[in-house]
Design a protein that fits this description.
The protein has about 270 residues and is α/β, with parallel strands linked by helices. The chain is built from 14 helices and ten strands.
Length: about 270
């Protein structure tokens, strides 16, 4: 993906096809196995500690990102491995032998068009992929396709049961993006904002005095401020402060609107509970 975008990748991952695990171990005895349910090894390649994984198929059997039955072996093809990926731009491969691009699902065209598109219904197998799509939209400035929004919406039930740290990890990465609001707006559009971050979703519909806030409700105000801070401050702590500064407005009683008396104190409570 980064190669096709002309960007410098943060790391390099290698995929092995048509290779038996015992043959790999014999050829690279220094490789350290780190995968438990399927073979993943750490290997020094050109002075860099890189991940080497064997091509695999996955079959959904349970809930969440752990609910998979994994099949691997020398008979698993590259196309089968790429089919289980989340989006088309992540389903491309660079063949080391000749430098050719293998792109069975149209990832290159989607990168050129600035699209985030699910490869298949397997997108829903790991519900956090919905957050990842929203985060990459914020990072890359790409547009999520309508069918992918549909898959994201289907992730709601399982997403509610995911470990909090997985949700927070995607949010932290999104806060480092050039325009973090895209992450939250994408989740809002897919119906997942309340599932993932109810404290932020509660700001929707909380109207404010128009003379002070012509931009709209507390959610619109918060996301506008978040992007303004992101444009000037690189640190995620300051950006999170912008995101959280008006959390108390999400608990304002309906009869008090459009005013938000005492929201500073109530916001501290919301933040502590979060």
């Amino acid at each position: 993906r980064d190669y096709l975008r002309g960007a410098v990748p943060k790391d390099r991952d290698y995929l092995l096809c048509g290779c038996r695990e015992e043959d790999f171990q014999q050829s690279f005895p220094e490789a350290v196995q780190v995968g438990k349910s399927f073979p993943v090894y750490m290997l020094d390649i050109d002075g860099e500690n890189c991940e080497v994984a064997f091509a695999r198929r996955e079959r959904k059997q349970g809930n969440g990102y752990r609910g998979f039955v994994v099949e691997y072996g020398s008979e698993v093809t590259l196309e089968e491995d790429l089919y289980r990926r989340d989006t088309t731009m992540n389903s491309t491969a660079l063949k080391l032998a000749d430098g050719s691009i293998i792109d069975p699902y149209g990832g290159r065209a989607d990168i050129e068009a600035g699209r985030i598109r699910a490869v298949s219904p397997h997108f829903c197998d790991d519900p956090v992929r919905a957050l990842r799509a929203a985060r990459q939209a914020a990072e890359l400035g790409f547009a999520i396709t309508e069918d992918t929004y549909g898959y994201m919406a289907k992730c709601s039930e399982e997403l509610a049961g995911e470990p909090t740290e997985r949700l927070l990890d995607e949010m932290k990465k999104a806060l480092a993006a050039p325009k973090p609001s895209i992450f939250f707006r994408s989740l809002q559009r897919s119906g997942l904002l309340r599932t993932a971050f109810p404290e932020i979703a509660d700001l929707e519909g909380k109207i404010q005095p128009e003379i002070f806030h012509p931009e709209g409700d507390a959610l619109q105000h918060t996301l506008l401020l978040l992007d303004k801070v992101a444009a000037e401050v690189p640190g995620r702590a300051a950006r999170f402060a912008a995101l959280a500064h008006d959390l108390g407005k999400g608990t304002t009683p309906a009869e008090m609107l459009p005013h938000h008396y005492g929201h500073e104190e109530r916001g501290q409570e919301v933040l502590e509970n979060w």
